[in-house]
């Protein structure tokens, strides 16, 4: 029997058929759970906060890839124009 680490609800999954890295969902609290170990099965809660941080980092990287010049380089260009 596998239990949700968040709310302790029973998760109806055959312990012999889950794979490490598999994502499960708790039927009670709807938490996303990652199988971090098998035999015995151990579940980790996938934090939504972690997903938000990753999205923000991706957005910051996209700005640079779009050809936008970082502020520091713009200042250098202005100084050269003044000379």
Properties at a glance:
83 residues; alpha+beta; three-stranded antiparallel sheet; two-stranded antiparallel ribbon; 20% strand
Distance between the termini: 74 Å
Instruction: Report the radius of gyration as a whole number of Å.
Output: 23 Å
Helix amount, in percent?
25-40%
Q: Note the main sheet.
A: 3 strands, antiparallel
SS element count, helices? 2
H/E element sequence: EEEEEHH
* Overall mean confidence score, pLDDT: 75
In which order are the strands of the major sheet placed?
Answer: 3-4-5
Written overview of the protein:
- The chain is an alpha+beta fold and 83 residues long.
- It has helices at 48-65, 71-82, and strands spanning 2-3, 10-11, 23-25, 32-37, 42-45.
- The strands form two sheets. Strands 3-4-5 form a three-stranded antiparallel sheet, with no helix packed on it.
- Strand 3 and strand 4 form a beta hairpin.
- The mean pLDDT is 75.
List the helices and strands and how they pair.
Layout: E1 2-3, E2 10-11, E3 23-25, E4 32-37, E5 42-45, H1 48-65, H2 71-82
Antiparallel strand pairs: 1-2, 3-4, 4-5
Short description:
With 83 residues, the protein is α+β, with helices and mostly antiparallel strands. It has helices spanning 48-65, 71-82; strands at 2-3, 10-11, 23-25, 32-37, 42-45.
